[in-house]
Amino acid sequence: PFEVLVIGGGPAGAAAAIYAAxxxxxxxxxxxxxxxxxxDTMAIENFISVSHTEGPKLAAALEQHxxxxxxxxxxxxxxxxxxxxxxxxxxxxxKLANGATLKSRTVILSTGARWRSMxxxxxxxxxxxxxxxxxxxxxxxxxGKRVAVIGGGNSGVEAAIDLAGLVAHVTLIEFxxxxxxxxxxxxxLHSLPNVTVITSGQTTEVHGDGAKVTGLSYKDRVGxxxxxxxxxxxxxxxxxxxxxxxxxxxxxxxPRGEIEVDARGQTSLPGVFAAGDVTTVPYKQIVIAMxxxxxxxxxxxxxxIRTVPA
Length: 310
Ligand code: FAD
Description:
310 residues, alpha/beta, 6 helices, binds flavin-adenine dinucleotide, NADH-dependent peroxiredoxin activity, redox-active center, oxidoreductase
């Protein structure tokens, strides 16, 4: 069995595997797709100390760094169930879709999250070519340009406020007849001169010139008319979904489905830790996921040296 088994091979999982392996303990990583969300990212300009890199390049570097150590990498493996240790100090099991069962004294869950997409024509085609999901990451690329934010919940309204300070103009489009964000955020939003708020608007299509986004169409859900907005960027803010469907009923999850962790990355189950976008830790970013992954591995090591194996 493993001493530390990491599930998920994004920035959090890679950091956890390296920190665990550096303690000289038996470490494994099982991931559906090693690299995680980073594989879907183009320019990365906030990975501190690296002015500019690209997602696939960073993903390859993550894998190479893990391979510097004696880590058992199981790529293209989907975890389907977590079985807690039957007795304190016993082995935790992770069942894979291929029928295999992995056993370990500690487990670090780092299965990340996925952005909910609008599923309209043009969205996938212009992803990273004007269609963006992360204002902290891609906001500065649209300096002085016109953008839309899709979604009027807290994340959409926060994104609109954030972007309004960088870009020329923000159009916020909410599907419902009213915004759902906290009142204090809505007040701030309405005080900004370069923001237009559209409610009852259903985005129907992303337009582009073949190379980049040029606008979007939305349907006015009250009158039924189709309207077009010319712009250079679209930030989709309709939800970040944690990859925890397979954990329901085992570890404690927040109402949004994120794994609840304490300051050490400990979950509700002894010996099970979690890190990165899959947890309740706020701000979903690469540097944060790496820090949390490292922390979870140190916590797992601390747990191992204090626990007598059953
Ligand atoms: P993830 O990267 O989501 O990795 C999760 C891992 O778990 C993957 O290996 C996945 O295959 C695996 N997995 C999932 N479910 C299972 C399962 N059941 N069994 C086994 N394995 C599983 N952040 C920045 O800091 N800067 C940026 O510029 C930036 N740009 C971004 C651009 C885009 C388009 C996107 C989508 C995100 C961007 N982010 C950026 C956010 C950043 O990518 C994430 O915060 C970060 O990747 C989170 O790391 P993670 O390891 O927690 O999860």
